[in-house]
């Protein structure tokens, strides 16, 4: 998971070097990121369901092999076309591998405390990996070349494959006959790929353009067709019963909003540090380390204890409030800002807020998972994660660029215009997270098993199963 998360941000720091080396245009350069994102987000749901049907280990190992081989091709790329194609294939492998990870966690660790610790590790990797990627990308690009941000995945992939072959138990899956919804798979994969493409291309074409509205309408129609199909199919790809849980629906909505704000901060915050304050790539990566450290210190222990004692919702709301406060605080960073006084406080708030929020969100979002569909729910969680990142980056980057152009036309200096654009984006990101706070407070329900005393180690996992028709407590 760390490899896949790193790959989402490690490329950002190396983009200028890639552009110079392969002679990309500004619009063409965006496809180094978009080709990966479209394949990744579009296939997560299908890959998660395939894990349930044919075995999660089989899908994981296949995806890991594809991702590692595509990383080698990315590093060897000497042309624009080869790099973009390899990035698309890399996204396919990343989707297959990552879609089933949470599903494997909840089945491998059925005991509440073990599962909470495992989800804490997963949440740390998934959230802190973004800022680690910025640092790693800067170091590799400056010390060697941009090719090595991809080559580094090859030995990591081989080691991971060896360990996975030894440590993961083989599963047969429930069989293709239990859910091989070909029509549903085509509809949802097409809808997600086209939807992500529409979002990432909106920055070039405009949100009200014929291109954006047309492709958006087609994506919405495909998604509506998928929902109708799932309501009537004998073996649906995504059983709609999953959405009868308020906690699952609320957690996924909150994740979209939170990731939209946070991802915008990572991307545009890096630009503020480099283009306004003059940081190099390595120094930019180091500037984000407080976020990683805050997430790590909380996700790997303290958050787990708080969730067990007070319940996920009670921990999530303060975490979201701190994250919103961090985004709001960075809107005050000036043109000649100081890292210690103008940036570091926001980084600390974001680190603590994310460290509290992500483990609680992940647990709530997986509360609908049964052994038969844990891979599917895992794919759904990762889909909302990627959709939130794509949507947030497209919206915030577009708003930031428009504000910068307006200020430049009004006579502001380049640095002041850029800063004004970033301020607007950070403010909108804070609003996204504030809306997530409202959803958490109004939609989420306290967990049925949450108490104010530590749960015994052998206590059964408490989950909200009221939405399963005819389910018994044992089921």
Automatic annotation (TrEMBL):
It holds the Pfam family MFS_1. It is a multi-pass membrane protein. This is DSBA oxidoreductase. Keywords: Cell membrane, Membrane, Transmembrane, Transmembrane helix, Transport. Its main location: membrane. It is found in: Cell membrane. Residues 1-448 form the Major facilitator superfamily (MFS) profile domain. InterPro entries: EmrB-like, MFS, MFS_dom, MFS_trans_sf. The chain crosses the membrane at residues 29-47, 59-78, 84-107, 119-140, 146-168, 180-200, 206-228, 249-273, 285-302, 314-331, 343-364, 376-401, 421-444. The lineage of its organism: Bacteria, Bacillati, Actinomycetota, Actinomycetes, Frankiales. PANTHER family: BLR6921 PROTEIN, MAJOR FACILITATOR SUPERFAMILY MULTIDRUG TRANSPORTER MFSC. The keyword Cell inner membrane does not apply.
């Amino acid at each position: 998971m760390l490899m896949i998360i790193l790959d989402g941000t490690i490329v950002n720091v190396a983009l200028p070097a890639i552009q110079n080396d392969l002679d990309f245009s500004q619009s063409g350069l965006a496809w180094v990121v978009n080709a990966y994102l479209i394949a990744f987000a579009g296939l997560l749901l299908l890959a998660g369901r395939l894990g349930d049907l044919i075995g999660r280990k089989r899908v994981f190992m296949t995806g890991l092999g594809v991702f590692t081989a595509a990383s080698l091709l990315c590093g060897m790329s000497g042309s624009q076309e080869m790099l973009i194609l390899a990035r698309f294939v890399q996204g396919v492998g990343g989707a297959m591998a990552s879609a089933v990870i949470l599903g494997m966690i909840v089945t491998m660790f059925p005991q509440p405390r073990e599962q909470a610790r495992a989800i804490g590790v997963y949440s740390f990797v998934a959230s802190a990996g973004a800022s680690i990627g910025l640092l790693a990308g800067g170091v590799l690009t400056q010390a060697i070349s941009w090719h090595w941000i991809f080559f580094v995945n090859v030995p990591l992939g081989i080691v991971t494959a060896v360990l996975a072959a030894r440590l993961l138990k083989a599963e047969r899956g429930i069989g293709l006959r239990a859910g091989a919804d070909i029509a549903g798979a085509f509809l949802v994969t097409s809808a997600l790929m086209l939807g992500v493409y529409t979002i990432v291309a909106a920055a070039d074409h405009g949100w009200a353009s014929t291109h954006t509205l047309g492709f958006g309408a087609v994506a919405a129609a495909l998604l509506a067709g998928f929902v109708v199909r799932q309501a009537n199919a004998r073996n649906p790809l995504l059983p709609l019963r999953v959405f009868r849980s308020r906690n699952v629906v609320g957690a996924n909505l909150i994740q979209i909003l939170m990731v939209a704000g946070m991802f915008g901060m990572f991307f545009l915050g890096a630009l503020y540090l480099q283009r306004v304050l003059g940081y190099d790539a390595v120094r930019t990566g180091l500037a984000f380390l407080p976020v990683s450290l805050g997430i790590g210190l909380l996700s790997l222990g303290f958050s787990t204890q708080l969730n067990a004692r007070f319940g996920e919702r009670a921990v999530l709301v303060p975490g979201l409030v701190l994250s919103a406060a961090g985004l709001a605080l960075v809107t005050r960073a000036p043109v000649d800002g100081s890292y210690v006084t103008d940036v570091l406080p926001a980084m600390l708030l974001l680190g603590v807020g994310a460290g509290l929020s992500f483990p609680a969100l992940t647990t709530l979002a997986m509360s609908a998972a049964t052994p038969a569909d844990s891979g599917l729910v895992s794919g759904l969680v990762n889909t909302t994660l990627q959709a939130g990142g794509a949507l947030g980056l497209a919206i915030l980057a577009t708003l930031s660029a428009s504000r910068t152009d307006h200020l430049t036309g009004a006579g502001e200096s380049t640095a002041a215009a850029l800063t004004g654009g970033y301020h607007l984006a950070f403010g909108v990101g804070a609003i996204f997270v504030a809306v997530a706070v409202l959803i958490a407070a109004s939609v989420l329900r306290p967990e049925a098993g949450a108490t104010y005393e530590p749960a015994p180690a052998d206590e059964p996992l408490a989950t909200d199963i009221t939405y399963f028709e005819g389910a018994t407590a044992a089921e």
